[in-house]
Specification:
This protein is about 35% helix and about 30% strand. By secondary structure, the chain is an alpha/beta fold. The protein has 2 domains: about 150 residues, P-loop containing nucleotide triphosphate hydrolases (Rossmann fold, 3-Layer(aba) Sandwich); about 70 residues, no CATH class. The strands form 2 sheets. It has a 6-stranded mixed sheet with strand order 6-7-8-3-9-10, with helices on both faces. Strand 7, helix 6 and strand 8 form a beta-alpha-beta unit. The chain is globular, with a radius of gyration of 17 Å. The model has no long low-confidence stretch (mean pLDDT about 90).
């Protein structure tokens, strides 16, 4: 039986006008990702990987092309609809974790649920289930600033999972970690994909990350090329 298509990009272009000239970040990118797949996109810094993630998350709009996520044409949505998409369909994990250092682990993970208006008891129950899942329940009341890089990354993943998104976007998730912690994060992605049928798109400049994905691409000069295993 064919799997659901969760992310579909057709002829996506993105150009930036800078003081140094015109930068063609994406040039006619096509991409299809199915439910439960982990897809990796490898490429050097500045290749357009983060731009691609932000366009899928609705954080930036392409100059032209179609971006369809769970049946929603992201390019056609207004700001309210895009906020709904990011709070229920797409989980985004930025390279710098995006955590609030002065808040506790629980407070960081529950933020999306708070914004969604979930009852406090229900929020805390959901957050503790996630912290158990990622192996950080014992750090629940600790401030994020006291965590290691690997622990911060896992908290960022838990926060992105809090609203049970069907798509998880990870921007250089291992860039600030030693390889042992990086491997744990990548194995956690594999477990999330398997346990929840979550679609995961990982972008990285580290070729070792690509050993943990189902399919891989290279983004080079704004174009996406499939890489055969």
């Amino acid at each position: 039986m064919p799997r659901d298509v969760v992310v579909l990009l057709r002829d996506v272009w993105k150009t930036y006008h800078t003081k140094w000239g015109v930068v063609h970040a994406l040039k006619g990118v096509d991409l299809v990702i199915h439910r439960g797949e982990i897809v990796g996109i490898h490429g050097p810094s500045g290749a357009g990987k983060t731009t691609l993630l932000k366009i899928i998350a609705g954080l930036e709009k392409p100059d032209r092309g179609d971006v369809i996520v769970e049946g929603y044409n992201v390019c056609m949505l207004d700001e309210n609809a895009l906020a709904m998409l990011r709070n229920s369909v797409v989980g985004f994990i930025p390279q710098d974790y995006g955590l609030i250092e002065e808040l506790t682990v629980i407070e960081n993970v529950e933020l999306p649920l708070l914004l969604a208006g979930m009852d406090r008891n229900e929020r805390r129950k959901r957050v503790m289930e996630l912290l158990e899942y990622i192996g950080l329940a014992d750090k629940a009341k600790q401030k994020v600033k006291y965590l290691s890089g690997g622990e911060k990354q896992r908290v960022a993943i838990a926060r992105a999972l809090s609203n049970t998104p069907s798509v998880l976007l990870a921007d250089e998730p291992t860039a600030n970690l030693d390889w042992e912690n990086a491997r744990k994060v990548l194995e956690l992605f594999q477990r999330i994909s398997r346990d929840f049928d979550t679609t995961i798109l990982v972008v990285s400049h580290d070729p070792r990350v690509m050993e943990y994905v189902h399919r891989r691409y290279e983004l080079r000069d704004g174009k996406l090329y499939p890489v055969l295993s």
